[in-house]
Amino acid sequence: FIHNEGGSGTDGVAVKGSKIFNLQYAEKGILWLELEAKGESGHGSTPPVSYAAKNMMEFLLELQTFSEDTIITDITSAFFYQMGVASNFPNSFVLKRSRNPLIQLVLKGVIQSNKHLRAMTSNTISVTGIDSDPIGINVITNHTKATVDIRLLPGVVPDEYLAKIKSIADKYKIEIKVKHSEAATVSPMDSKFFQTLAGTAVK
């Protein structure tokens, strides 16, 4: 058997008065990208209509919209259900029915206000670096580089997601280099190993 990097238990954190040990059986996919924009250089007092740093900034802002949707998969639904088991009414009623479209309207506000729940229910996109190799505060350089860390939910195909990104990258004249691409992984909950861990956590 193979297990993941592990986790921890909480006492009264997720649900008041409860002790919860999460067993992680899914890992989000990875898409690490290096980006580069090239364009006309110039002076800050008379900027070109289009230049590298501006194009990169506008591209990254549009890219962020890809992660705005809240997606409750079978995996996250199972997590919310178990939280419902440990909760009192009315929270138990809501959490056990997270796939219901009307219930999702209630849950969305809670999810969006919590970075951990946002990460569980969306394809996250983090801008981890931007560099235009500045010469001076009044100089527009002819290139800008950036790095992006994207984490994909189970079921999302990295190549298909990359194609979607490239469709807007062309508009901003952004070159993309893939540093690492890996699909999400999911382990079966009905395996002997998982059931052993679950039984031990309950004890």
Q: Which properties best describe this structure?
A:
alpha+beta, 25% strand, 203 residues, 7 helices, four-stranded antiparallel sheet, two-stranded antiparallel sheet
Commentary on this structure:
This protein has 203 residues and is α+β, with helices and mostly antiparallel strands. It is built from seven helices and ten strands. The strands form four sheets. Strands 6-8-4-9 form a four-stranded antiparallel sheet. A two-stranded antiparallel sheet has the order 1-2. Strands 3-10 form a two-stranded antiparallel sheet. Strand 1 and strand 2 form a beta hairpin. The longest helix is centred in the first third of the chain and has 13 residues, at 52-64. It is elongated and about 65 Å long.
Q: Which structural class should the secondary elements be placed in?
A: alpha+beta
Q: Which descriptor suits the 3D outline?
A: elongated
Give the SSE string: EEEEEHHHHHEEEHEEH
Figure out the total of helices. 7
Number of strands: 10
- Kindly state the mean pLDDT as a whole number? 89
Query: What fraction strand?
Result: 25-35%
Biggest sheet statistics: 4 strands, antiparallel
Alpha carbon gyration radius: 22 Å
Q: For the terminal residues, how far apart are their CA atoms? A: 21 Å
Helix content: 25-40%
The spatial strand order of the largest sheet comes to 6-8-4-9
Oligomer: single chain
Low-confidence stretches: none
